[in-house]
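Morning, I've got a small favour to ask if you have a moment. I've dropped the whole record in just underneath, so have a look.
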Amino acid sequence: MLRRRVIPVNLEVDALMNIARTTTVLLPPLRRLASHAAARSRQRAVGVALIPLLVLAACATQKDGATPTAPRSETAPVANAPAVPALPADPAAVRWRATKGQYYKRTWGFEVIGVNPVSSGYMLAFRYKILDAKKAEILNDKRSKAYLVDEVTQIVLAVPTMENIGELRPGSTPDPGRSYFMIFGNPGKVVHRGSRVTFVSGNFRIEGLIVE
């Protein structure tokens, strides 16, 4: 005959009481069961037969007439740009945006916001704002491979591809007034603040970008 496996009293009861304390959806009968089991556990072990009741307690609905509340998502929206530490703007990068950056606004319909290290420097984020969706559509065209090229070492940084997600770059039709970003891998942190890089997408190039 198979013997029922008995788990330690303190673990079983502690788990039962923790659920009873922390969940707001525990039904009154299950609360009484939890208290009763805690009292009797001082004399004998509690069998694994109580485990399904723990599951029921966690999944139970509220009292009649009460409106259940949906759990709040802890997942950040995919479209959110990675955070960039607040650092003083690089004067050279500011000059680039005030001079060469104007050409891309007029001719290509987008504003270069900047290139910044993210993920402790192991990745770079290229940020831009769409001014004219038709002119700037090349930036969001995934048929054209995008790269960053370090202008000193000529090392090429590619856009990472993740399973079930694809490339970490926008692929939809750009919306005027909206900001976007692309992520480039930077293994070994070969590109750092102060480096100059060239953005490449197909035959399109933006030279002299300064990493901030």
